[in-house]
């Protein structure tokens, strides 16, 4: 590195010496191996060191255009022959030019890289201020957003907004980097929604057939991938169908509804009621089966000795049903 610096200093010193009287002014060009440039047109003076005893010639050479600046992540190679051709097009012949240094220069644009973490933070800030529906749901990042590589510019700002074609149960955002009202680059960010759901958890061992109460379970809120359907209720009053250890999440099949008490016994006399619009008929019957509220049992009419199917009510009376209404 020190040797290369010393060589460049010696070259600059020699280039500052005016050409001998009567000689054509020499144009000395030193090419570095690589250089980064701003956006716009590449000019010889931005990618090389140009020296000449003729200041007017040097300024003319420095202004020679060599093409557009590189796109983000692009590299443009300029060799000596290309540079000589561009100089010749501008009226500076190759015979008047002496090029030293690298055989070609690699030109890249001055770039700013927006990291995936920065993009994600911008997207999550948007979701925090614009919560998705339903209320209370959260989100999880799916994959990693692509970094954004953009030209260096003043006042670069990131802005997130909803993107189209988001899959079901997902939110897709577009995070764009812009300056002076121009969008310079953009990246898509995808989130999977997670939903708050309640569940019952055993706080102590529960034996088979034991009733579920607030003393042996607790209600927790957890985040799941499936949205709640609104039908869940605490399983209080139900009976366990198996042994439950502490910490067991109580799911369907582990508990069952407790059966109501028997209110009608076999051979018991019962009141049979038939109710209609504006009338009620009551009669005496004999239950041929035990019955709980809501169950259908056979009942013999005491007067006619006819056996009918009746539905047991909570008060112990029975209501005969039509055949098509049998369970």
CATH class of the largest domain: Mainly Beta
Helix-strand makeup class: alpha+beta
Share of helix, binned: 10-25%
Whole-number radius of gyration?
Answer: 44 Å
**N→C terminal distance:** 96 Å
Which oligomeric state applies?
single chain
Q: Give the tally of β-strands.
A: 22
Shape field: rod-shaped
CATH T-level topology of the largest domain: eubacterium ventriosum atcc fold
* Element pattern in H and E: HEEEHEHEEHEEEHEEEEEEEEEEEEE
Percentage of residues in DSSP E strands: 35-45%
In CATH, the homologous superfamily of the largest domain goes by the name eubacterium ventriosum atcc domain
Mean pLDDT: 87
Could you give a short description of this structure?
The protein has 327 residues and is α+β, with helices and mostly antiparallel strands. It has helices spanning 2-15, 44-47, 55-62, 80-89, 116-129; strands at residues 27-31, 34-37, 41-43, 49-52, 65-68, 75-79, 97-101, 104-109, 111-114, 138-142, 148-151, 157-162, 170-179, 182-202, 217-224, 239-240, 255-256, 269-276, 279-287, 296-301, 307-312, 318-320. It has five helices and 22 strands.
């Amino acid at each position: 590195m020190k040797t290369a610096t010393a060589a460049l200093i010696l070259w600059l010193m020699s280039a500052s010496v005016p050409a001998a009287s009567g000689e054509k002014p020499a144009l000395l060009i030193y090419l570095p191996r690589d250089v980064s440039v701003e956006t716009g047109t590449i000019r010889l003076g931005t990618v090389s060191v140009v020296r000449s005893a003729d200041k007017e010639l040097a300024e003319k050479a420095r202004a020679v255009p060599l093409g557009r600046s590189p796109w983000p992540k692009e590299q443009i190679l300029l060799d000596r022959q290309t540079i000589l051709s561009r100089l010749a097009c501008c009226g500076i012949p190759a015979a008047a030019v002496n090029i030293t240094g690298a055989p070609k220069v690699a030109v890249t644009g001055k770039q700013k890289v927006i990291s995936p973490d920065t993009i994600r933070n911008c997207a999550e800030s948007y979701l925090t201020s614009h919560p998705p529906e339903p209320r209370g749901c959260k989100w999880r990042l799916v994959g990693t957003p692509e970094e954004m590589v953009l030209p260096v510019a003043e006042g670069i700002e990131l802005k997130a907004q909803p993107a189209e074609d988001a899959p079901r149960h997902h939110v897709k955002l577009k995070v764009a980097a812009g300056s002076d009202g121009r969008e310079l680059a953009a990246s898509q960010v995808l989130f999977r929604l997670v939903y708050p759901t309640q569940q019952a958890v055993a706080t102590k061992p529960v034996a088979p057939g034991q009733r579920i109460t607030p003393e042996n379970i607790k209600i927790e809120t957890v985040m799941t991938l499936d949205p709640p359907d609104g039908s869940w209720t605490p399983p209080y009053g139900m009976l366990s169908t198996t042994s439950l250890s502490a910490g067991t999440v109580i799911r369907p099949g582990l508990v069952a509804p407790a059966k109501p008490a028997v209110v009608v016994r076999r051979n018991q006399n019962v009141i049979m009621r038939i109710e209609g619009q504006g009338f009620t008929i009551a009669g005496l019957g004999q239950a041929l089966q035990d019955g709980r509220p809501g169950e259908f049992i056979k009942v013999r009419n005491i007067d006619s000795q006819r056996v009918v199917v009746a539905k047991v009510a909570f008060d112990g009376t029975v209501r005969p049903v039509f055949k098509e209404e049998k369970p």
